[in-house]
Amino acid sequence: MATSPCSSSGVSSSSSSGLGADAGLEIRTRSVEQTLVPLVSQITTLINHKDKPKRSDKTLQAIQRVGQAVNLAVGRFVTVGEAIANENHELKEEMSVACIEARRAGETIAQLTDVASLDHPESDSHITIFTDKTGVVKAARLLLSSVTKVLVLADRIVIKQIITSRNKVLATMEQLEKVSSFQEFVQIFSQFGNEMVEFAHLTGDRQNDLKDEKKKARMAASRAVLEKCTMMLLTASKTCLRHPDCESARINKDGVFHRMRLALEQVIEIVTDSRPNGENEMVPISIYSGIKEFKNKVEGLRENLYFLSKENLSTMLEVILEHTEDFTDSAYTSHEHREHILELSKQAKMELEQLVSVWMQAQNQKTKDLMEDLEVAILKTCQCMNELKREVHSAATSLAADLLKYHMDHMVLKALKITGVEGNLEAVAEYTCKLSEQKEQLVEMCRLLRHVSGTEPLEITCIHAEDTFQVTGPQIISAAETLALHPSSKIAKENLEVFCEAWESQLSDMSMLLREINDVFEGRRGEKRVYLSLPRPGKHNANLKALKPVKLDTEEQAKIAKLGLELHLLTSDVDSETEKWEDQENEIVQHGQGMSSMAYSMYLFTRGEGLLKTTQDLFHQAEIFATEGTKLASALHAFSDQVHDDDKPLLRLEAEKLISMCKQLQITAKASVQGKSATFTKVDACILKTRNVMTLLCQLLPLCCKLLRKNKAGNGCLKPAPPWREDRMRTGTNAHTPERRAETFGIKSLENHVTNMTFLESK
Q1: CA pair distance 342, 333, nearest whole angstrom
Q2: According to the model, what pLDDT value does residue 80 have?
Q3: 329-334 contacts: CB < 8 A, separation 24 or more?
């Protein structure tokens, strides 16, 4: 597997001490890396003592205590490693060798640091850390290398667990494909649901633990597909069972199974870091990344005139300009943007020609005037590339904004549902053509956005969105055709609803993605954002430190998964409603978006993901959510003063209802509980009450929007947007690996033994 020592490439440690773990090992997860940090730190401190001239009794005693502590901790660590080896026979030999090496290195360090009882620790009669300086470095290297091997081997067990879980899911899927009766289907699907919950938790933990942001984004995309496809698989299979002779129902079901298998395969590719037949993953280069690399090479000429050839630079520009053809050839790019991109492409070629001319002269003769001319040429070339970058960004994002606004009413989907129930095959065919046109527009939008996304995780999100539209469009069409053929079928109607909801959800996600892309371009944010409402040292009540955080186990998270899914759907509904407001700075919209962001973080908690790592984080988030709801109620009261008398009572009644629900949520969130069962009950109550508030919010937003248009009052009297509001994180929100899952595989127990080594940093 990918995490085996023989297939990896390096572990970093302190360079000052000359330490370095086995160069054949690569750490790909945060849990393994963080487990090694204290060991590397303390051994580095120990090594650095060997060259210190001052050796007081206190220092010698400290060195000896450190050596003994290392030896004892390594002994406990090795005992856990050996236990893991005995439970996993395929790794027993490798693990045993690594454990023996670690134990031997620990004993060597204890012997070399046995200096406290010696009057002259540098005496030749006893080999110590001071007399055998290279020996202690060798022992330290061996210790780090062997401990790393044990951790990486333990990590392979986690990977094996994910593969085993995937295999169970695949086997059950094969059974589901072959069932011929509803009773049999229900029984097998119940088993399938439990297996998918286990797989979701395993892969969620792994996603959060990955160091590589690109792999993390790919994992998030695959897991999102599996989550949505689980409901699709249920309704598509039921429809096929109800209408076994319907070709469109069979096509619809087959499409879901095929997509789930692809997603499962991609998850395994990510966790094992391998691809079928050993082929490398080919991700197309974006215009942004191409321009960034090109500019770096151009600016590098200031330091070195000979580090690359003019042909290399010309080739890089040609590749970038070839990619701009995706914009200039697109039927959806405006005439103005197309003309500007073509002009800038032509200018870029001219600037590069001028740069190369001056550069070649400077290689032959470094005069002051030539170097000044070179600097001007570098600046002009980079400026031209920046303008090109700005133009393609404007072209992609303006197209995306227009398309998302135009398609946000979901008129084609609504028409397909109506004509399907009517059994109007001719009308369904007409609207499926319109949906196909819409799909092509949205796919093109995703392709162009990928070029300007700015980060690799966002590029992957764009690719995932493109795939989703490509696949979901035909699935909606087959579901609509099935309903038109069987207009009285409730299950066929439900099936079409599920696929339409997936389409609507992806459109909503695109609005969030567009905001993130604009944020990255304008420098307002980096790869990730942190919710300002989360407790952090010095920011919130100090009493929070005294509370014991509780993490939900797998069974408890499964119980609240359904409630969390309802919360997720409500956040999508709220986002859709806020998008309809012309004035995005309206205080009601601002509070609604903020509440939706916090509700989404609570939904992620129900999946074992996101920034809310413990139940205490969740309770604190619920308090902030309730406070924000109270602020929204105040804004509603202020807004009610602007509307006509006929509309005022209804709006104020809804505002009072919101205040009451938020107060109940605050009381629940602040209530003190003890014990795991009581904590889980409180979690359930907080999410339930948050869901109720979000349900009310879904009713309030369209009402206010309608009244605002009716009264044409604007929002001049409303307060400005609260400064803390931030956009929601989706594929980018990640937490540390939950303890409950790591404990199962031995990583956590190994980690504890290393982390609990309490050494003296310096004396």
Answers
A1: 12
A2: 79
A3: 330/444, 330/448, 331/444, 332/399, 332/403, 332/441, 332/444, 332/445, 333/395, 333/399, 333/448, 334/395, 334/398, 334/399
Whole-number Å distance between alpha carbons of 686 and 292: 46
Q: Please state the length of the chain.
A: 763
**One-character DSSP codes across 630-674:** HHHHHHHHHHHTTS-TTTHHHHHHHHHHHHHHHHHHHHHHH----
Q: How far is CA 122 from CA 47, 107, 562, 762, in A?
A: 15, 20, 68, 20
CB of 489 within 8 A of CB of 498?
no
Q: Please, what are the domains in the chain?
A: 30-49+56-116+131-156 (1.20.120.230), 165-275 (1.20.120.230), 287-400 (1.20.120.330), 554-712 (1.20.120.230)
Place of tokens 């595989």: 745
Q: Is 714 exposed, middle or buried (0-12, 13-18, 19+ CB in 10 A)?
A: exposed
User: Long-range contacts of range 227-235, CB-CB < 8 Å, 24 or more positions apart?
Assistant: 227/200, 228/502, 228/505, 229/256, 229/259, 229/260, 229/263, 230/193, 230/196, 230/260, 231/498, 232/256, 232/475, 232/498, 232/499, 232/502, 233/176, 233/257, 233/260, 234/189, 235/491, 235/494, 235/495, 235/498
Do residues 35 and 80 touch, judged by C-beta distance below 8 A?
Answer: no
**Cβ pair 672, 650 in contact under 8 A:** no
3-state SS, 71-93, equals HHHHHHHHHHHHHHHHHCHHHHH
CB environment 249-260: b (16+ within 10 A), e (fewer): bbbbbebbbebb
The C-alpha atoms of residue 302 and residue 387 are separated, in whole angstroms, by 22
Phi/psi region, residue 433 (left: phi>0; alpha: psi -120 to 50; beta: rest), is alpha
Helix, coil or strand: residue 29: strand
Supply the pLDDT for residue 555: 56
Q: What is the pLDDT of residue 600?
A: 86
Sign of the C-alpha dihedral, residues 411, 435, 283, 334?
Answer: negative
Q: Quick one: CA dihedral 592, 593, 595, 596, positive or negative?
A: positive
Instruction: Output the pLDDT for position 735.
Output: 35
The whole-angstrom separation of Cα 481 and Cα 218 is: 33
The confidence score (pLDDT) of residue 4 equals 36
CB 63 within 8 A of CB 116: yes
Q: Would you state the torsion angle of the CA atoms of residues 316, 322, 324, 327, taken in this order, to the nearest 10 degrees?
A: -160
How far apart CA 158 and CA 10 sit, in angstroms, is: 21
Tell me which residues of the chain have a pLDDT lower than 70.
1-26, 35, 37-39, 41-42, 45-56, 115-133, 275-284, 524-559, 608-610, 645, 712-763
pLDDT at 731: 34
Residue/partner pairs of 190-196 with CB below 8 Å, 24 or more apart = 193/230, 194/558, 195/165, 195/168, 195/169, 196/169, 196/226, 196/230
Supply the Cα-derived Rg of the chain in whole angstroms. 31
Q: Got the DSSP string for 516-561?
A: HHHHHHTTS--S----TTS--TTTS-GGGGGS------HHHHHHHH
- Neighbouring CB atoms inside 10 A of 248's CB total 21
DSSP per residue, 411-471: HHHHHHHHHHHHT-HHHHHHHHHHHHHHHHHHHHHHHHHHHT--SHHHHHHHHHHHHHHHH
Q: What is the model's pLDDT at position 62? A: 73
What pLDDT score does 280 carry? 56
**Distances in whole angstroms, Cα of residue 467 to Cα of each of 399, 442, 511:** 19, 10, 17
